[in-house]
Amino acid sequence: MELSESVQRGLQSLADPSLFDLSSFPVLVDVSFRSLLSSHADSGILDQPELKHIDQIVLKQSHAAATTFILEAVKQNADKSTISSCLEEITFSAERIEIFHSAYQKHKKELEHLLASIGRRPPHITDVSWRLQYHMKNGHVHKVNEPFYLISLNVENGDSGGSSEDISFSCTMEQLQDLVGKLKDAAKSLEKATQM
Amino acid sequence: MEEVDKILIHALRQVGTEVSDDVQSVKQFTSELIVEAVVRCVRVIDPGLGGGLPASLPPGMSARFRVGMSLAQACQDLGYKGEIGYQTFLYSNEPEIRSLLMFLVEKLPRESAEASDQPAGKSVVLQRAISAAIKAQLALPWLPPNCRLPLLCETQSPGPLHAFHTQSLSLAHNVKCPEKKHFKGMPLTARIFDYQRDILPPVTAQASHHASVAASILEQHMAELSATQEWENEWNSQGLLSRLTPQDYRSRKLTRLQKRIEEQLRSAALLCPESAIGANRSNSDLSELLQSFRGTAPTDHLLTKGTHFTHTQKFTFTQETAAAASPMPSGRQSEGDVQVRQQEELATLQQQLQQLCLDVDQLTTDMKQMNVTTAQVWDELKKRELGNSEMEERMRVKKKTIDLLPDGESNLVKLQALVEGSAKRVVNLASQWEKHRAPLIDEHRRLKELCSNQDRESSRKLSEIKDLHVKIREAAEEAKKKEGLYKQLITELENLPQDVSRSAYTLRILEIVGNIKKQKEDITKILSDTKELQKEINSLTGKLDRTFAVTDELVFKDAKKDESVRKSYKYLAALHENCSQLIQTIEDTGTILREIRDLEEQIETENGNKTVANLERILEDYKAIRQENSALAAKVREG
């Protein structure tokens, strides 16, 4: 795991027993996790009684470094050995690594959700209803006599919690065949992607 | 044989043959399975050869025959030496199929095993992880939203999403450079410190939308990382060669870039043809911009120029505002009146403004012209003054010459003496100078040499340092790669099926090798025994021959004298002949026995091959094909 210079500096001050003693270290770690996971921004999150005696600049640096480190670790799905080797390099003691790691394990799932919620995702097709219609004639042509399909895809949208309007369209037989072929192709390439 | 079969089945499964779990040995293979296995092996060994082969047996007899023949041909093309025909596949017998499969499995390429030794890159690892995740998600069934368990919720209804949106964050950091700038009585750094200590919110509270906090932090980190990487690249490629400290290098680059930007902007501003005011304005903007680039070190030239133009600009601007401010409503009049008046006033004022602008322009141009003329006049003045002083000098010399004229002779002598004295002094000084100069030049040369030596040394060290850098990076990369490979191999090892126990195989192989050794020893023992026996027989035969010869001679000598001895001689000859006949018979019996044994073995193998049954089957096949053919012929005739 690569860390930038500012993050390394912040973590080094976090590892320094003269700056963060054993009562304030767990508080800062906890605060870092909470500030990432809380649903609203709280600018007063660093105003903890245990952190009063620490210089605010150092505190803010360490907080920024800790949050960055946490997010990077979750992003790379780091396991315990990676995290501890990385923290050992920045002179964390074994005790502090243990404290950090237990907090990390506790919040990892939520953080994964947090990271997974960044981005967008097209709606999922969950069901389909169809109707075959027959186009006999129209105002311009006396005899058309073509079948066509009315397709309505029931979709589930992740954004709005599972409910959304359906997608409806009509298509000719060739278009429908094309669509089915494309879907089959997609399924096949998905299968192929699993056999790496 | 069991283990051989297991290995064979394992290899066949790897090739892609679907061998069901209850098939444990080659004996249980059906014709279809054999054909599929052989076809898959051939396809892997030689895709061109196996491409045209169908993986399953067709129903028709003649088609089956054709498939069998082509398979046999393919196997022979691959170099299989044993007996093979279409019946091998259709009416299999165990040993033949086993030897064929062993041959094919041995022929299988082993690249896959070697390829896994290569360290997989990051992307490969990532792709594998992705494919594993897709596989896991495909294995889960889809459920309607109401029935989802928490496990499924994770992948099938991931909750609300936030678009990727980042914001730049400001981090608290130590301001090191002690700048002399003061702001409202306090040093700027102290101000920054105060701001960072008391006002700057923590990073997680800086983003305007809380949802973008994670993305912003990650982006910030990535940006820092890539910036350091880029700097390192540049430093290693160019910075080290310039032999400057990093700070010097940076500042030099900064000034260079500033100059470049300035030039570019200037040339761009000159190129675009605009009205006078517009050009002035853009010029003033440009100079301001340039000043802001320079930050702490503005040049005087730019400053004066900038102020000049800003003054004109300010002037026009205040005029405008004044013009806009003056037409305020002065009384209660009808709106139309007011409007008309206002418009008139506006028009007049605009006219005034234009007039003033024109005046200002003219004045500016006048001023410029004046400036130019002033400079020209100054130049001329200076020139004149110079000429003046020159003239004065000349006049003084002439005056002195005139003063000296009356007493010409003596003065000339004096002057000559003076000139001679000065010439001597000059020579003297020159010799002294030479005396001083030689050691100084030597010193200079010495120092120069030293300097170049040091230069060379430093460049050598520089290249060494560069080499070391490269080596360090390489080593680090290697270590990282090795670590990654180690991890990957460990995961692979964990994922591997544990049923194939390697140590058991090796033990088994060692045992077999031991057995073979023992057998070999036995064989050599028997061979040596046989040789000994042969020797004994030979020696005995020789002895017999000699004894017989001696006896024969003795008896023959006596036989001339005595009738009974002659008889005994005859008996002796007969005995000898009979014995040799006997030996011959025994030997013949031995060879015949051996032949019998060989033949029995052959019969056994033939019996094992089920030749008769196979022949019958082949005959039946032949009949079936003939029937099919006749049916086809009948159809053709009918048609």
TrEMBL record, chain A:
GO terms for biological process: sodium ion transport. InterPro entries: COMM, COMMD3. Pfam families: COMM_domain, COMM_HN. This is COMM domain-containing protein 3. Belongs to the COMM domain-containing protein 3 family. Signal peptide: none annotated. Residues 124-194 form the COMM domain. The gene is COMMD3.
UniProtKB/TrEMBL annotation, chain B:
Keywords: Coiled coil. Residues 339-366, 462-492, 596-635 form a coiled coil. Residues 128-608 form the CCDC22 coiled-coil domain. GO terms for biological process: positive regulation of ubiquitin-dependent protein catabolic process. It comes from the Eukaryota. GO terms for molecular function: cullin family protein binding. Residues 1-109 form the CCDC22 N-terminal domain. PANTHER family: COILED-COIL DOMAIN-CONTAINING PROTEIN 22, JM1 PROTEIN. Belongs to the CCDC22 family. This is Coiled-coil domain-containing protein 22. It comes from Myripristis murdjan. The gene is CCDC22.
